[in-house]
Amino acid sequence: MTDLNKLLTPLFLSDKEIRKIIELIFFSYRDFTSGPDEILYKINFGRAHHRVIYFVGKREQITIRNLLSILQITKQSLSRVLNQLVKEKYIIVSTGNDKRTKNLSLTKKGMELEEKLTTIQTKRIRNVIKNAKEDDINGFKKILYAMIDKNNQIQFDKLNM
Amino acid sequence: MTDLNKLLTPLFLSDKEIRKIIELIFFSYRDFTSGPDEILYKINFGRAHHRVIYFVGKREQITIRNLLSILQITKQSLSRVLNQLVKEKYIIVSTGNDKRTKNLSLTKKGMELEEKLTTIQTKRIRNVIKNAKEDDINGFKKILYAMIDKNNQIQFDKLNM
DNA sequence: ATAATTAAGTCAATATGACTGACCTAAATA
DNA sequence: TATTTAGGTCAGTCATATTGACTTAATTAT
């Protein structure tokens, strides 16, 4: 950081404060994912399964291609996870109008797991929210959104249209 | 969610809104770590190396034990990563007063890498901050902190004493 | 002084999540 | 008809993490 920048930078932006934010992000993310991780572990699944279940639940009838573009992983990576979920009947696959495509949907079993996993994270957020000011929550959401890359903001927007 | 809870829950707390927050956390964390990941990839390191370098930089002369308690991984997991960092002279090890313990510090090379990696994340945060209101940043920090488990909040506090 | 605890390390096996690269099939589109 | 797109598969590799069983050396408690 140059001397000029130091002069122009308000106190709440010091490198030390930024480092605190980096740590807050690290610790909070770790704790945020720890709940679902425990449940998944018991049924021999991992975080990758959670993500697939989450986004299939979010967008029923989603194609493989769309799912890949949200997850930003290779189809080989998705393959193992998805096949397990299909084999164990959490997800059901059907053929689309375009017969090259496949549509993924949650089964009842899949919905139940999705609900269970999401509820844990929802509870954590609700606990935080009930002790916080609405302005703080809105600040939190705004900053989180601004932290996302432009192209992924678009993806987020599409996902929530 | 019970009917009573629905009545008591303000609009900004709807399940749909909470799910948006879950997604914001997922997307923002992924993009937040992507910058350092790229640099680390080029020198055959991973995210685990980043974390070790970061916290050794934060707490010079840290012991293995303390580092493990921050990272919350097993010593077998740390072992491989730390040995690589020592072998490639990013970290230097010395014996503590208690001769059972070891103290870890960054070398000049280690500090340079730490700086490089942290700068990427710092830049992202600064970019967000310069277009945001101070209240939003403070809300962001408050909520992040509240999202952390009690015992890890204590760890965060200690780390920033 | 001896016993117990603590800090650190090591060996081995395993699981998960991800990757690259090279192919293949079938359907849709140019 | 040729090309592109959607999806799948085989093989190999790497990174991160785990459990479990042991070892060594130093410190602390009895």
Give a verbal description of the structure.
The structure is a homodimer of 161-residue chains. Chain A has 161 residues and is mostly helical. Chain A has a single domain (13-130), classed as Arc Repressor Mutant, subunit A (Orthogonal Bundle), CATH 1.10.10. The first copy, chain A, contains 8 helices and 3 strands; from the N terminus they run H-H-H-E-H-H-E-E-H-H-H. In chain A, helix 2 runs antiparallel to helix 6 and helix 3 (47-58) crosses helix 6. The longest helix of chain A has 28 residues, at 15-42. Chain A is globular. The model of chain A has no long low-confidence stretch (mean pLDDT 93). Chains A and B meet through helix 2, helix 3, helix 6, helix 7 and helix 8 of A and helix 2, helix 3, helix 6, helix 7 and helix 8 of B. Chain A binds a DNA duplex (30 and 30 nucleotides) through residues 44-48, 63-65, 73-77, 79-81, 96, 98-102.
Kindly summarize this structure in a few lines.
By secondary structure, the first copy, chain A, is mainly alpha-helical. Chain A has one domain: Arc Repressor Mutant, subunit A.
Descriptive labels:
3 strands, homodimer, Arc Repressor Mutant, subunit A, 161 residues, mainly alpha, three-stranded antiparallel β-sheet, 7% strand, globular, DNA-binding
Order of helix and strand elements from N to C terminus of chain A: HHHEHHEEHHH
Distance between the termini of chain A: 40 Å
Helix content of chain A: over 70%
Number of strands of chain A: 3
Number of domains of chain A: 1
Radius of gyration of chain A: 20 Å
Which strands sit side by side, in order, in the main sheet of chain A?
1-3-2
